[in-house]
Structures are given as C-alpha cells and as structure tokens.
Amino acid sequence: KNGVLVPLDELFTEEFINDVNNNNLISSCTDGKHYWMYPLSSAPFWMSINKEMWEESGAFEYVNTEGDRLWTTDDFVNAMLKLRDSGEVGLNIYCGGSGGDQGTRALIYNLYSSFIVDENGNWSANNKGIRDALGLLINLQKEGAIDFGRGIQAADEILLYKNGHLASSICWGTSSAKINNTDQFTEYSVPFPSDDGVPELEYLVNGFCVFDNGSEEKRDASIEFIKFVCDDPTWGPYAVKASAAFPVRTSFENPYIGDKEYELLSSWTKYYAPYYNTNDNFANMRKEWWNMLQYISTGDKSIEEALRDFDLNSNK
To answer: In this structure, what is the dihedral angle of CA atoms 169, 124, 38, 232, given to the nearest 10 degrees?
Structure first.
C-alpha cells in the first residue's frame, strides 16, 4: 500500500490458486487489487494444555481426543471450573501489550462464533458475540478460574505455562512448540473452543515479496528465485520443512508424514479464519485491543463502552 513492492499477480495462476484451495490463505497475499506476497507455507495458532494437570483435576474429560479434537464453549467453561476447583489457574488473558495478541482475539471471537471485522472491512468488535464472550471471561475471572494479565504479554504467558503456573497457553504455534518443549509435562494440542464446535483459527503465512528498486532485471531474477524456492517439486518441500510450517500447495506431499502431532496440526488448516492482518489500521487496532481488555478487566469501562471505544478508535 506504500508503493515499495512489485506486484506478483503473474504468479497467482488459476493452477496455483486451485492447488492452494484455501481462499482465506490466498487473501492474506493481496490488498484486493494486486498480489504482493507469494506464499510458501503456513501454520495455525492453537491452544496447548498441560495434559497431566487437566487429567488430575478432572478437566480432561471435557477434551475431545478424537479426530480434529474439536470442542465447545460449554466444554471450555466446565474445564476451567474443574481446574479452579483443584487449585489451578486455567489460563491468562494477557493484555500488557500487543505481543501475541492474536491468541486472545482467537479465544474471544471463537467462544460465540463472532468476529471483529465487518463485511466492509471495518473493525467492528461491538457485537453480541464478542460482548457475550468477554462477559463470560470476566465471570470466570471473578470466579477465580482464569486471570487477566495486565502486566504481561504472550511471551510471559508462555513462560508461566511452561513453568507449571498456568494450565493452558492460548498463544501456541509451531515456533512456540519447538522453542518451549518441556519434559515436565505433556503439551497437548487443542483448537480453540467455539459454541458450534467448529473453530476459526488465526494463522501464520510464510512467503516472499519483491522490493521495487526500479530494475526490471532484478525484479525478474527475484521472481525466478521465488518460483524455485516455492514451486520446485524437489526443493520446494525442503523449503517448507525448513520453515517449520505446512505447504500451502496441496500437491506437495506433507513433509511430516509419520509425525502424528504435525499430521494433526496440518489438518487444522481447513479451519483458517478470514485474514485481517492486511486491513487498514491493523497496527492501530492492536494497541486499542489490549487497552480495551485492560479497561474491561479493571471495571473502568463496561464491556459495551470499551468495545464502542475500541471500534471508534481502531477505525480512525
């Protein structure tokens, strides 16, 4: 949008788009007029739970261990209360800054199948689903089942989880899992709970852009290099695996065959939510998001008042 990149429209052939077969993922690469990033791989964000802690408290009975492990908002609430009854903190709605804020958004908009963007692309969180979700989380906080972390961000939340002070993390992904692997407990992966049992997941997209430096020769060379890295039938899968994510091309063989965890996670790509990181005022929205959560958690603003201000200020 600032005019520093070369459009990559020529790479988004009908064959490629059909091969990806995921409209939300394709939409992450465009501003609606041109394609600016050519994707290599992607990976969802999800929840990780301390399996032993959940089992000992009785909360694990509310986890679906079959198929894609889909579960509901009611299951989530019952699990949080079970954990509380055993003296554990179920999770932390961290809101000390923007770090990892996609985790709090994914939990909140999934609880009642809502969203924070309207059909016109405006930030629009002041809707019944978001209000109900925040009301639910505030009640769980008052009942001692979860915390709101006004002084921490996602990295701090992950550390609390890894050290056994939280029963769950809501900011887990392939990178988090790799960096924070622990022998202290079993990190059990679940998608975000939702009222209809079908989640919409946040996700990472890895890809390449080309800077426009005025040289047609460098532009063409860059595009050829990108095509080699992403599309070559031999070397493309190696690049995907090096990114620690999953191929966007369905024609590429899953490089993690035999790894049951990664096979499960790769199956969650079909639950990708609409991509909003490229929306106007995205950076501004992130600041307003954690401020909104702070106002609600302290009671300085009502839920409806805080969400009204969030929409207003995010869209400025």
So the answer is: 50
